[in-house]
Each structure stands twice: as C-alpha cells, then as structure tokens.
Amino acid sequence: MGAYILRRLLLIIPTLLGIMVINFALVQFVPGGPVEQAIARAQGQGDVFGGFAGNQGDAGASGLEDAGPAGDEYVGARGLPPEFIEQLEREFGFDKPPLERFGMMLWNYVRLDFGDSYFRSVGVIDLIIEKMPVSISLGLWSTIIAYLVSIPLGIRKAVRDGSSFDTWTSGMIIVAYAIPGFLFAILLLVLLAGGSYWQIFPLRGLTSDNWDQLSLGGKIADYFWHITLPVVASTISAFATLTLLTKNSFLDEIKKQYVMTARAKGLTERRVLYGHVFRNAMLIVIAGFPAVFIGVFFAGSLIIETIFSLDGLGRLGFEAAVARDYPIVFGTLFIFGLIGLLVGILSDLMYVLVDPRIDFERREG
C-alpha cells in the first residue's frame, strides 16, 4: 500500500501542473485583464466591461478604444499618461513574458507564497482563511445530513424493494433531485424568510448583528438559525444519489450466497442485515464520504452563498474571476486542485480502512 500511495502522490505533480498550464494559457486570451480593470477604475468606470458594452462611437468620450496591433495601448488607456500604464504593468507583473510570469508563479507556489490580491491588498491565504468557515459550514452540514437521511432510507427501500413505500419515496427523491438548488433556495426565502409568508428564519448572513453580545448557547442557537435554510437548499439534490446508491448496494449484497447461508443458520433478519450485509454494502458509500464532502463544498456554494448573502469561498472566487484578480484565481485553483487530488487518495485509503481485503497494489500488478 505504501508504494501505491507514493505513486499517487508523485502523480499529483504532473496533474496539478497540467491544470495550472491549461488555465494560465486560457487566461491569456481573456479580454479585460487586471491592467485594463485598474485603468477603468482609475477613470471612474467601475470595471472595463462597461466600456466594452458601450457604443464604439462614444469611445473617445468614455476614454476607451479598441485594442490595436501589438505594441498599442491597452483598451482604456486613452487619456492616461504612458508612465501610469507602465507602472501598472510593473505592479501586476505584466512587463514580463507569459512564460516567465508562469515560472515565477509556480516557484512562489512551491514555497507556499501565493501573493496578495491585486485589488484588495490582502494576502490570498488570509482571504481564503477568512472565507473558508462559511463554505466549510455549508459543505460539512450538508454532507452529514445527506448521509444521516440517505443511509437509513436507502436500507429501508432495499428491504422493502418493490413495495408502495419504495415507489412513493423514489418519486419524492426524483422530484427533489430535479429541483435546482437555487430555485429551491428562493422558494425557502419566499416561504420562510419573510418573502411573502412567514418570517421564521433570517434572510441573510451567518450570524446576527448582536453576535458578540450573545452567550455561548445563544451563539450556537443563532448559528444554526442562520445556517438552516442554506444547508437545506444545498442538500436537497444530494439525497437522490446517496439513497439510490445505498439501496442498490444493499440489494446487490442481499442476493449473495453468504446472506442465504446466514439465514439458513437461523440468524434473525436484523442480524443478517446489520451484522453481515451492512459492512459490505456500505463500503462504497462510506469510502466516498471525502469526495462527497468536497463535491458539496465546491459545487453549489457560489449560488447558495449569493442568494443567502454568505461571504464564502464561492463568492470570493466569482468576484476574483470577474475582477481579473489573478492571484486569487490561480491561488485558489492551485490550493483546491491540490486538495481535490489528495482527497482522491484519501478515498482509496477509506476503502482499505472499511474493507482490509482491498489491495490496490495487487490490483495494479
């Protein structure tokens, strides 16, 4: 197993390098870079895209012009001194060739130096640490609740396969899976957050304004009061996959010979189900917990955080991409790409922990 883990760890290097190369190359073709963003802000236009959407005939009045051949000024440079443009290029590192910038970026990342945000004047790591509790709260609670509901429900559906209970629960699961998370989030706001009906839960944020004045019990209650709707909205579609996976795993195991042998020995159905079937059936479900958590952690956080005004990693990444804040974009891409690859290895270790009979080295041989 040690050799397998070592090979997987070494494979992270070319995989992560490929991710960074592809994304860095794509960024070179995206208009409205950080220099143009800074120019647009200096001219009081907010961001460069407002200028792109404007009339070409008004380019002189707005201070924007089309990008010309190589060597021409940046879009939006008209009316600003060339020295100012050159200073911006030096500050953002765009006075160097792309390959040199990419090499410097990777060298800094190897030393765990992710730099500072272009427009926030804050370190990338500090921003990630600041925003991470919100995203972790959503991902962790959504994953735990999905498992706590899906596993018992999947087992019961497997035991009562083909019954009316199995039929109507399958219908409910399919409907829940088909509802988009953002649409369900809006529905929750309208119904339960004072939109048009009941004011039961808060409309936005993760804590109340008087958080610092609350007792420990009050802070815990306030936290769960705020996190309830976002967690429900982000969990609604996770039930289907886990429930059906649990059901199918149990059905596969129940039909095997060792289950028939256990029943023939006179063991109770409960003993057979939870003493023999459960461990084998739950192998794929339990071992996939890290991957499920990371999936929930990354996948739906942006929309849910935006709807419920939560300041997490989803909004941070989106705002950085819009503002062309490349240190945040590439820093988070590197860190989360590394986390995703490590979680893949952790999932394999979970398989071995749940069932020691699995040997990845022998399978590869």
TrEMBL record:
Residues 132-351 form the ABC transmembrane type-1 domain. InterPro entries: MetI-like, MetI-like_sf. Gene3D superfamilies: MetI-like. PROSITE patterns: ABC_TM1 (PS50928). The chain crosses the membrane at residues 9-30, 134-153, 174-198, 223-246, 281-308, 328-354. Belongs to the binding-protein-dependent transport system permease family. PANTHER family: INNER MEMBRANE ABC TRANSPORTER, INNER MEMBRANE ABC TRANSPORTER PERMEASE PROTEIN YEJB. This is Microcin C ABC transporter permease YejB. The lineage of its organism: Bacteria, Pseudomonadati, Pseudomonadota, Alphaproteobacteria, Rhodobacterales.
